[in-house]
């Protein structure tokens, strides 16, 4: 882990709460579960203190947006029930005095949050790699909105692929030196709406910036990338009927690849 992220982690005494109170989802039947589990990691450990599984399954490490899990509950349900993946979402809101913002604000305030979310990925990824029933060769990184920037810019080779929703992979009011962190062969899916209220080329916050409103330009050299632009769709892309199948198909395709 880079020193700058370790420094951020060490500056918060309760940073482990991002892991301890993570929002999770575990498929029905896995480890003998009679029903899929949706809740926090802390509650799961209380309900199933002796939980074990004989096999390993893929996992999605999900980075929530600035409003918390919010629409992430929909992604969680899809990923757990349709893809049969474990869903794991670190909980930023359990860290006291963490950096926050309200749009519009100064760029430096956004950047403080972006660095915090990067530290969150590093910390929780290490935790996941120590769980016996998680297939560490099949961990996908996914992020929505604020979490989308974090997932897209994470520099590492630990993930099988990435899914970025409701974020355009461009510099604007929200970031200054954004770069895709994945290498050019890592599977990468970006889904965003044409009427996104924060990142489209017609959005109020981006009106003074030249943006395309999607990740196509940033992914030109990425062989296994796919960009889906949804007409008449706003920031909440879960309202579009195609999104579920697009996400599940991506996970199923690339989790099977050697």
Question: What does this entry look like structurally?
Answer:
- This protein has one domain (3-255): 3-Layer(aba) Sandwich (Rossmann fold), CATH 3.40.50.1820.
- The two termini are 26 Å apart.
- The longest helix has 22 residues, at 107-128.
- It has an 8-stranded mixed sheet, sandwiched between helices.
- The model has no long low-confidence stretch (mean pLDDT 96).
- It is built from 7 helices and 8 strands.
- The chain is α/β, with parallel strands linked by helices and 258 residues long.
- It comes from Arcobacter roscoffensis.
Give the overall silhouette: globular
Helix percentage: 25-40%
Name the CATH architecture: 3-Layer(aba) Sandwich
Neighbour order of strands in the largest sheet? 2-1-4-3-5-6-7-8
Termini Cα gap:
26 Å
Number of strand segments: 8
Protein name: Dienelactone hydrolase domain-containing protein
InterPro entries: AB_hydrolase_fold
Organism: Arcobacter roscoffensis
